[in-house]
UniProtKB/TrEMBL annotation, chain A:
GO MF: cytochrome-c oxidase activity; heme binding; metal ion binding
EC number: 7.1.1.9
Organism lineage string: Bacteria, Pseudomonadati, Myxococcota, Polyangia, Nannocystales
Subcellular location: Cell membrane; Membrane
Main location: membrane
Family matches, as PROSITE patterns: COX1, COX1_CUB
Protein name per its UniProtKB record: Cytochrome c oxidase subunit 1
Natural source organism: Enhygromyxa salina
Keywords, sorted A to Z: Cell membrane, Copper, Electron transport, Heme, Iron, Membrane, Metal-binding, Respiratory chain, Translocase, Transmembrane, Transmembrane helix, Transport
Protein role: Cytochrome c oxidase is the component of the respiratory chain that catalyzes the reduction of oxygen to water. Subunits 1-3 form the functional core of the enzyme complex. CO I is the catalytic subunit of the enzyme. Electrons originating in cytochrome c are transferred via the copper A center of subunit 2 and heme A of subunit 1 to the bimetallic center formed by heme A3 and copper B.
Family: Belongs to the heme-copper respiratory oxidase family.
Listed SUPFAM superfamilies: Cytochrome c oxidase subunit I-like
Length: 555, 339
């Protein structure tokens, strides 16, 4: 692959020139400044992105190991090596760490921080210092959640449902405050991205010329800013109730436990889209770049992200069909849930249609994008079951739900995230990885993931409830397949780690644009210089107008 | 904490289905109508999946990169296609919504002639109360273990009126396809008409703490003419012929799920173990102390929080009005016998 000096509609001549001058020894953002302090007090979005990446990957590892422990305990129907109390603590930490410390910040804060300003042709985010602050707030939240391990009695599940969370040990206060603080980090990142997208676009980058990754990050940022405060209020009320004994959610003091669920899901359902929308953005990039085709239905994909962001605020009650909310509310929420399915379906169809007439390169990122289409389609379709009122009565709080949200969160977000890592890794570190190992990792993840979670749909429709450490013998066979699958999945993920780290240490040098992509992040050196671009690029066209596209009218 | 209330393998219900993809027994009116929708959804979603992934696989092979000179299609959008793939799924989605909604409305409206049965959830067992029967533990004997037993008549609507004494639980009968959260401080109700004889498991499906996994029960469907007799048998907890008072006491101990918090040896669980506890001097959380005698045990069962042994928290619910004098005497005799 050669340095791309072909005319790119996303960068005018001067930007192309700056690309060439990158070969003169202008230091990259990685080498421009040296020493630990230069990282700790950096306001460079790329370095903050990498710090986020390191932190989120660490927590992914921790929560992943917890998951393997849970699956291993579930290998037999009896209690094996963990007591009931330990099992409950482990699944709580698995969920809380995955959600609050990994998935929510992984794509927006880690990957988004790195690519958003580059894709917009900006030197940095709008508020670089706020960006650093949001990272440190995240670190404080992480320390608080980890402290609950030391305090040792958080066993409420990541949802902190009342009144159970009122009766259990004192670590709940620390954990909820941790989630509360993590929320602020999320809000600050959101504000930063919204302003950056509005104000920092390069000349010529109209809204319709923004890469779809930017659209996705923008829609995500809107949800972060609008929904997260509600979580903060809810968790704060929970702490007030516990410490001051003011009855809000606890029926023993005149409160309403179902009110807590309303508050909690009012945030946590939009949060599901905070987790998945950026994944959609990544997939839109990967599929076009590696199939050399203009994205199919740009406008529909961009607008569906915004539509999902808006509708996501009014579907929270579908988590509560059997909780005791009114039947009428259940019916309204079910209807709205079906409405949100439409823009999601449009996206999947558009990605598949993008492949049509392309010239598909089977690179590692493309493998992950194709795995995503498989897993996310299953995740989306099984969501239809759960949105259907009468069916949800049967499937609610069974393994069917566990399987569904893992198909969306892991099969969707995590697979997209891994694809994005392989796609942008050469940009981040200026090194290529071993493609064979990369593809092998995608295959292992695919097999392991499906073995782990496909079985759980069957467990669910057979009635296996979630959050059980011991279960009836008739569920054992499927649980064993699932557990073995989780080990394969873990092997795949360790291979990802190995491949990426090996690339940094001894990978071949990457060119500035190894995929011949058009969006602006590829029009500067790999790794980029500290200020991203020598001269501000000017944009004249779509980020998906590849030179291979046949405009002669023969197609 | 190894002991559980009912070891799941001893629940004693028949396996619900032979193979994973098979549906559960259609044991209630709701199950029958829900399964139709479930199968329909599975067919539609299955076809959609095959279409989407089939197209993907076809394109993957057909449009694999051949050479560096490949030209790709200039297609960027198609109004007609995009309208079609928005509108067609929307029609199916509305169909699912309406069908699900109709069944759900049926599920929320019990018929006027339904038999009312009260269900109370607490960590970690269910109490079942039948109209006109004394409040006694209702138990099914399973190979030496006991589980709460819900007896329902065949082909007759039953409404469960449910509440919780502590945290949120959820009453789930997979074979009936019904589930409802059981929330403290209010009543939740669920109804069904059983249409198949047999015994089926009941699960708690709202996480409620340590022994959530063991909070199981059994529903037993009997012919209508045997219903009253079955209820009487299930709600009768008396010393049987040839049973020693200690043996009867052990049955009481299990029936009221004392074993979910108290071990029969001296090890502590949620509460103190019973082994060798009788006659022992204990100090209490209020600073006083006393000897565990008949009166202390009686008081601890009827007003558990009066004197809590140091090192434990006041968690136990009162059993006043549930355990009668005969049962109490037997229970005390049983505790005395534990060394």
């Amino acid at each position: 692959m050669s340095d791309d000096s072909k005319k790119s509609p996303q960068a005018d001549k001067s930007a192309s020139k700056s690309d060439k001058s990158a070969s003169t020894p202008e230091p990259s953002y990685l080498t421009a400044k040296r020493g630990l302090m230069s990282w700790l007090v950096t306001i460079d979005h790329k370095r903050i992105g990498l710090m986020y990446l390191t932190a989120t990957m660490f927590f992914f590892l921790v929560a992943g190991l917890l998951a393997i422990t849970l699956r291993t305990e579930l290998f037999t129907g009896q209690q094996d090596f963990m007591s009931a109390a330990t099992y409950n603590k482990v699944f709580t930490l698995h969920g809380a760490i995955m959600v609050f410390l990994f998935i929510i910040p992984s794509v927006p804060a880690a990957m988004g921080n790195f690519v958003l300003p580059l894709m917009l042709g900006a030197k940095d985010v709008a508020f670089p210092k706020l960006n650093l602050l949001s990272f440190y707030i995240y670190c404080i939240a992480a320390v608080m959640l980890i402290l609950t391990l030391v305090l040792g009695s958080l066993d409420t599940g990541w949802t902190f449902y009342t009144p159970y969370s009122k009766t259990t040990g004192s670590a709940v206060i620390m954990a909820t405050m941790g989630a509360f603080v993590a929320g602020f980090s999320s809000i600050l990142t959101g504000i930063n991205f919204v302003v950056t997208t509005h104000k920092m676009r390069a000349p010529g980058m109209t809204w319709n010329r923004m890469p779809l990754m930017v659209w996705a990050l923008y829609a995500t940022a809107l949800i972060q800013v609008m929904a997260t405060p509600v979580l903060a209020i809810t968790l704060f009320l929970l702490v007030i109730e516990r410490t001051l004994s003011i009855g809000i959610f606890d029926p023993a003091m005149g409160g309403d436990p179902v009110l807590y669920q309303h508050f909690f899901w009012f945030y946590s359902h939009p949060a599901v889209y905070i987790m998945i929308l950026p994944g959609f953005g990544i997939i839109s990039e990967l599929i076009t770049v590696h199939s050399r085709k203009h994205i199919f239905g740009y406008r529909a994909i961009a607008m569906s992200s915004v539509a999902i962001a808006v509708i996501s605020f009014v579907v929270w009650g579908h988590h509560m069909f059997v909780s005791g909310q009114s039947e009428l509310a259940g019916i309204v929420f079910s209807f709205l849930t079906f409405v949100v399915a439409v823009p999601t379906a449009i996206k999947v169809f558009s990605w598949v249609a993008t492949l049509y007439g392309g010239s598909i390169r089977y690179t590692t990122p493309m493998w992950y994008a194709l795995v995503f289409l498989w897993t996310f389609t299953i995740g989306g379709l099984t969501g239809v079951y759960l949105g259907t009122l009468s069916i949800d009565v049967h499937l609610h709080d069974t393994y069917f739900v566990v399987a569904h949200f893992h198909y969306v969160m892991v099969g969707g977000t995590v697979v997209a995230f891994l694809g994005g890592l392989f796609h942008w890794w050469p940009k981040m570190f200026g090194r290529m990885y071993n493609e064979t190992l990369g593809k092998l990792s995608a295959i292992l993840v695919f097999i392991g993931f499906n073995a782990t979670f496909m079985t759980q749909f069957f467990l669910g429709h057979q009635g296996m409830p979630r959050r059980y450490y011991a279960y009836l013998p008739e569920y054992e066979a499927l649980h064993q397949v699932s557990t073995i699958g989780s080990w394969i999945l873990a092997a795949g993920l360790f291979l990802v780690l190995f491949t990426l780290v090996q690339a940094i240490k001894s990978g071949e040098r990457a060119s500035s644009n190894p995929w011949n992509a058009i969006s602006l992040e590829w029009q500067t050196a790999s790794p980029p210089i500290e200020h991203n671009f020598h001269t501000t690029p000017t944009v004249t066209g779509s980020p998906y107008d590849f030179p291979e596209i046949d405009k002669s009218g023969k197609h | 904490m190894i002991a559980t209330f009912i070891p799941p393998e001893k629940l004693g219900t028949p396996q619900m289905s032979e193979t994973p993809w098979e549906l559960l027994p259609t044991a209630s009116n709701h199950a029958a109508s829900l399964d139709g929708l479930y199968v329909f959804l599975t067919i539609v979603c299955g076809i959609s999946f095959v279409l989407v992934i089939g197209a993907m696989l076809y394109f993957m092979v057909k449009y694999k990169k051949r050479s560096d000179n490949d030209r790709t299609s200039p297609l960027t959008h198609s109004g007609k296609l995009e309208f079609a793939w928005s509108a067609i799924p929307a029609v199916f989605l509305m169909l699912f919504f309406v069908w699900g909604e109709l069944d759900f409305v049926k599920l929320s409206a019990p018929p006027a002639d339904a038999i009312d049965i009260r269900v109370t959830g607490q960590k970690w067992y269910w109490t079942i109360e039948y109209p006109g029967r004394p409040v006694a533990a209702t138990v099914a004997a399973l190979d030496g273990e006991v589980a709460p037993l819900l007896v329902v008549p065949l082909n007759q609507p039953v409404r469960l009126l449910m509440t919780s004494k502590d945290v949120i639980h959820s009453f789930y009968i997979p074979a009936f396809r019904v589930k409802k959260d059981v929330v403290p401080g209010r009543y939740a109700s669920v109804w069904f008409t059983a249409i198949e004889e047999g015994t089926f498991p009941v699960f708690c499906t709202e996480y409620c703490g340590d022994e959530h996994s063991s909070m199981l029960a059994i529903v037993k469907v009997v012919p209508a003419d045997q219903y009253e007799e079955a209820v009487r048998a299930a709600t009768t907890l008396e010393q049987g012929e040839g049973e020693t008072v200690e043996q009867f006491g052990e049955k009481v101990y299990k029936s009221f799920a004392c074993n979910s918090c108290h071990n029969t040896d001296s090890t502590a669980k949620v509460g103190p173990g019973f082994g060798g506890v009788f006659g022992k001097s204990e100090s209490f959380t209020d600073g006083s102390s006393g000897v565990v005698d008949e009166n202390y045990i009686r008081e601890s069962i009827y007003s558990p929080n009066a004197k809590v042994v140091s090192g434990f928290t006041p968690q136990m619910p009162s059993f006043a009005g549930q355990i009668n004098d005969d049962q109490m005497n037997a229970l005390i005799a049983y505790i005395k016998s534990l060394k």
